[in-house]
Amino acid sequence: MLTQEMVNKLNEQLNLEFVSANIYLQMSAWCNNKGFEGASNFFKIQSSEEMYHMHRLFDYLNDTGTMPVLGSIDAPQVDFLSLLDLIKLAYEQEKIITQKINSLAHFSMMLKDYSTFYFLQWYVEKQYKEGKIFKSILDKFSLVNPDFGGLFLIDQDLKTMNGNK
Ligand code: OFO
Predict the structure, then answer these.
(1) Cα 57 to middle of ligand 1, angstroms
(2) Ligand 1 pocket: which of 42, 50, 58, 124 to mutate (most atoms <8 Å of CB)?
(3) CATH classification of the domain holding 121
(4) Which atom of ligand 1 is nearest to the CA of 123?
(5) Rounded to an integer, what is the distance from CA 142 to the centroid of its chain?
(6) Range of the structural domain that residue 81 is part of
(7) Ligand 1, atom 3: nearest CA belongs to which residue?
(8) Running DSSP on this structure, what letter comes out for residue 163?
(9) Is the pTM here over 0.70, yes or no?
(10) Which of 147, 145, 126 is closest to 50 using CA atoms?
(11) Binding of Fe cation: at which residues (predicted)?
(12) What is the pLDDT of residue 165?
């Protein structure tokens, strides 16, 4: 049986995963609109992944006898200065989620709620991988010249990239 405080925090995380899914779906739309097909595909996959993260929390709450509560979420940012600006914002979003997951894992450990602690380990690993992939995309920007087809190369790279592998 989860404590009410744990339930509240898991619900909060569930809604944060929704936020990430919406942010990435909107980013996918912006990329598509600007002709970045690879990046658009990458962010669409990222958005589906975030929905899957949300569903896992939804199932965990249900399976532990608690009704998940969906909150209202803010509309995501629609416009971006550049592809680089967009990737930087996505990386910042991942850093926020990593912090949240880590503090959630810490909280479950403090409560000696080992079942939730175990459940959260999957997210801890995901966040490590996602942070790494966004950082690697950002690093690529410093390797190419955006004025000479560099953005095209990055976009091609993103076409086959999956941030969760
Ligand atoms: Fe990108 O993160 Fe969900 O958990």
Answers:
(1) 11
(2) 50
(3) 1.20.1260.10
(4) 4
(5) 23
(6) 4-69+76-164
(7) 50
(8) T
(9) yes
(10) 126
(11) 17, 50, 53, 94, 127
(12) 47
